[in-house]
From TrEMBL:
The chain crosses the membrane at residues 12-32. InterPro entries: Beta-lactam/transpept, Beta-lactam/transpept-like, PASTA_dom, PBP_dimer, PBP_dimer_sf, PCN-bd_Tpept, SpoVD_pbp. One of its GO terms (molecular function) is penicillin binding. It comes from the Bacteria. Pfam families: PASTA, PBP_dimer, Transpeptidase. One of its GO terms (biological process) is cell wall organization. Keywords: Membrane, Transmembrane, Transmembrane helix. GO terms for cellular component: plasma membrane. This is Stage V sporulation protein D (Sporulation-specific penicillin-binding protein). It is found in: Membrane. Its main location: membrane. Belongs to the transpeptidase family. PROSITE patterns: PASTA.
Length: 640
């Protein structure tokens, strides 16, 4: 059957149109792929070809308030391998094993893993620059040295529980390193190179570098001058008393800034792997919970004064040595009691029955209202991991005996940081601050402040007038009461001793106490609060006034001088005992001649220098109290 020419043309035209339509669709698709999807597909292809060598950011440094580095970084290269690029795994493994001091078989397993990039872990992590140089010199294909760093703590165990430590991947694991890990960590960078399916580098494609973003630097409220003094005194006490543990905290009572914090036992953050977890996991100043003993009497005193339940000078109390409460006999620490005393003397003598009386005048509801207002029974909110909140009796379970023992610091459990914050509120005018330790966040390049922590007032607990009376009473404790060991000539120091029995299995231990002292100075305008607790000191009488008070006195004297607080001549006169060294005031020798000096009658030694007949300089200056027999340095010159 013949097909007409017209039919053939129609069919050819139809085929042609269909062909044009198909090619149009292909062209549109190619154009769409080329122009619309081209960049995305290229990136996907690059992802298939690409291999990333990571570059770790510099972890932010931790500095004290004056810029002294407490935690920094040191360069520590790491070994990376691209298994598909390694030509002779056995030979490469042997060469690397010799340098990295590891079994050849272990290296070989890393080199033959079916991964794009493999870390030799842990032997190839954070290696020395000498080892890195040796590996580079071998020129092994597929073996790379990546820039890396590790944490460095220049002062060793100094401030260890506060700083904490970082792991091998520079991740924070404890302390501030963990609490502020996100801010300190920064963002990773990388070098990206391209290789084919066999892992060989593609020479016609340039490497891509993404720079890491370093972490922010953290400036603390810690003052290394104060911290050094705390560490020194704890070291001395550890040698002297061989205690089970020790705690020291120094805080600015006017804003909550922690100036120093230390504890024993301690550890080196760079060697935390070889330290028992119970040592590095427990930051005792914020974690440890125990009965406070007589330091807690400050809270009872504050409540009684604020509620006008007592007049320190006019009201009197007779202490027979014990008091009966609901069938229980509660004893004073002094056998036979203190007899008749004013309530100021009750505070000075740390008389338990006297504070039982104050507790009864307050009543349990009002007493516990103030205890909670001062922050006990809840966390202070300090920016450190692992804070405890203490233990208080539920109010419905508080009977007469529980009320009485709570009034003098037994039957409740508190943390050291709670006590410091509460006493700071008692002496600073009545304001309870949240303690904090992170002061500022700094840009690591410019050093500019990115973010600043400001003091946080939780509430006002007592009035300024009540706070003034507390300061006066506690200054008298140091000058004339149980806290004489903390007396510092030239500085008005106030404070309170504490001697707390330790309980185990529901019973108090014998001859096993936590002795403590909390002090502040200057007493009329406090700039510093210091708390020290010593757990079970050996070879001594276990009283806070004997063990802890002198430690606080030493810390106070040196810290106040370091902080620029000048000594003053006006202070409450210390009541001396036969154990105290006799003090004499240095006379004014300036202007006296050699002959005049020979006629002076004082029990002091002279260290004379200079040529001349007249005293033109002396040290210490006139009016300063020193021990009898101390040396005065004088300089002789000519009279002007």
């Amino acid at each position: 059957m013949r097909v007409s020419y017209v039919t053939v043309r129609k069919r050819l035209t139809l085929v042609l149109l269909i062909g044009f339509f198909i090619f149009a669709i292909i062209d549109v698709r190619l154009g769409y792929v080329q122009f619309a999807l081209g960049e995305m597909l290229t990136e996907r292809a690059k992802d298939l070809w690409s291999r990333n060598i990571p570059f770790e950011p510099e972890r932010g440094e931790i500095l004290d308030r004056n810029g002294v580095p407490l935690a920094t970084n040191v360069s520590a290269p790491s070994v990376l391998v691209v298994p598909r690029q390694i030509e002779n795994p056995a030979e490469t493994a042997e060469k690397l094993a010799n340098i990295l001091n590891m079994p050849v078989e272990k290296v070989y397993k890393h080199l033959t893993k079916k991964t794009s990039i493999e870390r030799i872990h842990p032997e190839g992590r954070k290696i020395s620059h000498e080892k890195a140089k040796e590996i580079r010199a071998l020129g092994l294909k597929g073996v790379y040295i990546a820039e890396d760093s590790k944490r460095y703590y220049p002062f060793g165990s100094y401030l260890s529980h506060v700083l904490g430590f970082a792991g091998i991947d520079n991740q924070g694991l404890m302390g501030l390193e963990l609490y502020y890990d996100k801010e300190l960590s920064g963002q990773k960078g990388s070098v990206q190179f391209y290789s084919d399916a066999k892992g060989k580098r593609m020479p016609d494609m340039a490497d891509a570098y993404t720079s890491p973003v370093d972490g922010l630097n953290l400036k603390l409220t810690i003052d290394t001058r104060v911290q050094t003094i705390l560490e020194r005194e704890l070291d001395i006490a550890e040698t002297t008393y061989r205690p089970d543990g020790m705690i020291a905290i120094a805080m600015n009572p006017n804003n909550g800034e922690i100036l120093g914090m230390a504890s024993r036992p301690t550890f080196d953050p760079a060697d935390f792997q070889n330290v028992p977890p119970e040592v590095f996991n427990r930051n005792l100043p914020i974690w440890s919970t125990y009965e406070p003993g007589s330091t807690f009497k400050i809270i009872t005193l504050a409540a009684a004064l604020e509620e006008k339940k007592v007049d320190l000078l006019r009201d009197h109390f007779y202490d027979s040595g014990h008091v009966h409460v609901a069938g229980a006999t509660l004893h004073c620490w002094k056998r036979g009691g203190h007899g008749s005393q004013s309530f100021l003397e009750v505070v000075q003598n740390s008389c338990n029955p006297g504070f039982v009386e104050l507790g009864e005048r307050l009543g349990k509801e009002k007493l516990f209202e103030y205890i909670k207002a001062f922050g006990f029974g809840e966390k202070t909110g300090i920016d450190l991991q692992g804070e405890g909140k203490g233990i208080l009796f539920p109010l419905h379970r508080v009977g007469p005996v529980e009320q009485a023992t709570t009034a003098f610091g037994q039957g409740v459990a508190v943390t050291p940081i709670q006590q410091v914050a509460a006493v700071a509120a008692a002496v600073n005018g009545g304001f309870l601050y949240t303690p904090y330790i992170a002061k500022e966040w700094l840009d690591p390049v410019t050093g500019e402040v990115v973010r600043r922590q400001t003091p946080q007032v939780k509430r006002r607990v007592i009035s300024e007038e009540t706070s003034k009376q507390i300061r006066y009473a506690l200054e008298s404790v140091v000058a004339q009461g149980t806290g004489k060991g903390a007396f510092v000539d030239g500085y008005r120091v106030g404070g309170k001793t504490g001697t707390a029995q330790k309980a185990k299995d529901g019973q108090y231990l014998k001859n096993n106490h936590i002795v403590s002292f909390i002090g502040f100075a200057p007493a009329d305008a406090p700039q510093l609060v210091v708390y020290v607790a010593v757990d079970n000191p050996k070879g001594t009488v276990q009283f806070g006034g004997v063990v802890a008070a002198p430690i606080v006195g030493n810390i106070m004297e040196d810290s106040l001088r370091a902080l620029g607080v000048k000594p003053r001549k006006e202070q409450m006169e210390k009541e001396t005992t036969w154990l105290d060294p006799r003090l004499v005031k240095i006379p004014n020798l300036i202007g006296l001649t050699k002959k005049d000096l020979q006629q002076q009658l004082f029990n002091l030694k002279l260290d004379v220098s200079g040529e001349g007949d007249v005293v033109i300089e002396q040290a210490p200056e006139p009016g300063v109290k020193v021990k009898e027999g101390a040396t005065i340095r004088i300089y002789l010159g000519t009279k002007r």
